[in-house]
Amino acid sequence: MKHLKILAAALALLLIGLSGASAMAEGSSGWLETVLSERGGAASTQTDDQNAEQGSDQGSDPIEVRTGAKKPGMRSGAAKQPAHYLAVLDIDSEISEYDSYYDHIGVLDAIDDLMEDENNDALILRLNTPGGNLYEADELYHSLMLYKQLGRPVYAYMEQECCSAGVYVAMAADTIMAARMTITGNVGVYMQTYSEAGLLDKLGIESEYIATGENKVAGYPELTDAQRAIYQALVDESFALFKAAIMASRGMTQEQMAPFLDGRLLSAMQAKELGLIDRVCFPDEFYAHVEALHPGAQYRNVTPEAPYASSLLDMLGGGGLTDILDLIGPGTMKNDSADRQKSALRSSRD
Questions:
Q1: What is the mean pLDDT of residues 208-237?
Q2: DSSP per residue, 42-79
Q3: CATH class name, domain 47-186+260-348
Q4: How far apart are alpha carbons 332 and 27 in whole angstroms?
């Protein structure tokens, strides 16, 4: 009898626990739906009417369509989007595969997805970048030009700064505007190297390389005039492509480009006077221009999330040793990726 009483008590506690768990699950479900709704997620219980209401909100204040604080339904993958929309793509930070605040592959994928989406009518580029690696900039420029071949326009708006490689990317746009306090220009290409000869002499270290040719390890221990000419040819060839993009976009001649081809920074007004951009205006004026061309425009932000580590702990816990080394500086470890970073053709306001 004693054992039966214990068994009955255990069953009662089990039933109470299951009942409480059920109530917690129901409460958690409601909480989860609320959080997803606030973040623009696609909660499974959302109705079509709710989604339609969210879609109508998107066009009311396009300036708030930011990667950091988006309205419900603004990110790709939301439960339901307007039938036709204008995509918003933010190019923030340095245009480089190695930058922790810019997802180059994600940006290219986003453009590819837009090209496959017949409901997309146009693309808005919001540029806030000091420049970056010419390889990534050229790849992004090419991707945007392929997008335009579908007959869809690209509108570019320069924010705080849009320099060097950022200008290169902007040349893919049909219309380029900038804020009146924007810093732009810095058009050009460079490579960077350094000499170890003086340091090695002071330390009494003699460096020797056994290589297949005298230019295989160019710059070690110091750069020769012949090697400098080799690098200069690479820079000149890349710069020719940069200038060709400007000429094709802006209809400018070599003589017309001459005032800014020395790499100088430009204010937005100077860029306008030189023909590098179309208009200087505030963001609301930019969007008014776009909406005049696309009445009833709805917006969808397709910017991928930045892959940055939020803290040093995240770096350590997420296998981010390479991120820490990147903070120390390129070339810390002699592997292919580090050497590629160090010798990459640059187009950036450093």
A1: 90
A2: --TT--HHHHHHHHHHHTT-GGG--SSSPPTT-BTT-S
A3: alpha beta
A4: 52
If DSSP codes are grouped into helix, strand and coil, which group holds residue 101?
coil
The residue among 144, 135, 133 whose CA lies nearest residue 169 is 144
Q: pLDDT tens across 131-190, in order?
A: 999 999 999 999 999 999 999 999 999 999 999 999 999 999 999 999 999 999 999 999
Is the bond into 221 cis (omega within 30 degrees of 0)? Answer: yes
CA-nearest of 78, 81, 96 to 297 is: 81
Q: Quick one: which of 330, 307, 331 has its CA closest to 319?
A: 307
First to last CA, the chain: 84
C-alpha to C-alpha distances, 266 to 43, 47, 184, 251, 258, nearest whole angstrom: 47, 50, 5, 19, 13
Domain ranges of the chain: 47-186+260-348
User: CA 342 → CA 179, 332, 345, distances in Å?
Assistant: 33, 10, 9
What's the pLDDT tens digit per position in 256-288? Answer: 999 999 999 999 999 999 999 999 999 999 999
Residue 235: C-alpha distances to residues 192, 193, 251, 265, 339 (Å)? 11, 13, 23, 19, 17
Q: Which residues are catalytic?
A: 164, 216
Token match 């000149």: residue?
236
What is the C-alpha separation between 290 and 85, in angstroms, rounded? 12
Whether pTM exceeds 0.85 = no
